[in-house]
Amino acid sequence: MTQPSLVTQDLTIRFGGHVAVNAVSCEFRPGELTVIVGPNGAGKTTYFNLISGQLTATSGKVLKDGTDLTAMAPSARAHHGIGRAFQLTNLFPGLTVLENIRLAVQARSGAGWKLLRRVEALTELTEKAERYLEATKLTDKAHQPASALPHGDQRKLEVALLMAMEPDIYMFDEPTAGMSLDHAPDVLDLIAEIKKDRTKTVLLVEHKMDVVRALADRIIVLHNGELLADGPPEEVMSSQIVRDVYLGKSTEAA
Ligand SMILES: Nc1ncnc2c1ncn2[C@@H]1O[C@H](COP(=O)(O)OP(=O)(O)OP(=O)(O)O)[C@@H](O)[C@H]1O
């Protein structure tokens, strides 16, 4: 079996007396798409925040290819290949779609935000940005201001920006939330494309069971901050304990 790219070891966070994520140990491998499910308040987003660095663990560890990221800020974790899609936080609304992607490519190339003096360098970045535009089917929107995009296209642009950062770990928290039914398939197709790259590890928080079924190689279930189940989709979804949680029975009874 391939080595895990991402590991959480006994990952825990307390807010006062409340343990929102409780000793979650999991390994995630390249070429694998894991969907994290669980009832409202189960700790899914908090678990994501602990991995991407928006929150710092009370105890436990986050390791990426063996490097301990636990104490690192989100930007340092991003540098180590953790890529999380956020709604438009990295966007320059007045710039065009292409310019936004080119800036992300530029940031990834190590040139930072400096003005580029060499025309060839700019051409190279533009060509790369155009490939991400094409991959996300935004080519015909290239010269529109990012802020003018309809909601569905803005979500695609978020994925394009994430791809431009070339992360090893892709994290999506409800990628089709608030999207119309016509746009959701585009974003799901993009995630399916990313998953085809066997060097990438994909983590997805999702409530919609049809999305889970379409994409998951593996499902982990969180409940009250604890890891309740972990395995292939059919196995997890048919397990009695998971059914009980979704039907609202107490797990103790199960
Ligand atoms: N910053 C915080 N301070 C205090 N409590 C928090 C904080 N963040 C999350 N929590 C609590 O931790 C628990 C887990 O929340 P979290 O948002 O991770 O759940 P979730 O599984 O993502 O839920 P949903 O599906 O509704 O988004 C909840 O009880 C929540 O109130």
Question: Mean pLDDT, as a whole number?
Answer: 89
CATH-assigned homologous superfamily of the largest domain:
P-loop containing nucleotide triphosphate hydrolases
**CATH class group of the largest domain:** Alpha Beta
* Shape estimate: globular
Q: Terminal Cα separation, in Å?
A: 33 Å
Give the proportion of residues in helices: 25-40%
Describe the structure.
The protein is of the alpha/beta class and 254 residues long. It has two domains: 1-81 and 168-254, 3-Layer(aba) Sandwich (Rossmann fold); 87-166, no CATH class. The chain contains nine helices and ten strands. The protein has helices at residues 44-52, 74-79, 97-109, 119-135, 151-164, 184-196, 209-215, 233-237, 240-247, and strands spanning 6-15, 18-28, 33-37, 59-64, 67-68, 82-84, 169-173, 201-205, 218-223, 226-231. The strands form two sheets. The protein has a six-stranded mixed β-sheet, sandwiched between helices. Strands 2-1-4-5 form a four-stranded antiparallel β-sheet, with helices on one face. Helix 3 (97-109) crosses helix 4 (119-135) and helix 5 packs parallel to helix 6. The longest helix is centred in the middle third of the chain and has 17 residues, at 119-135. The chain is globular, with a radius of gyration of 19 Å. Bound molecules: adenosine-5'-triphosphate. Adenosine-5'-triphosphate (ATP) binds at residues 15, 18, 20, 38, 40-46.
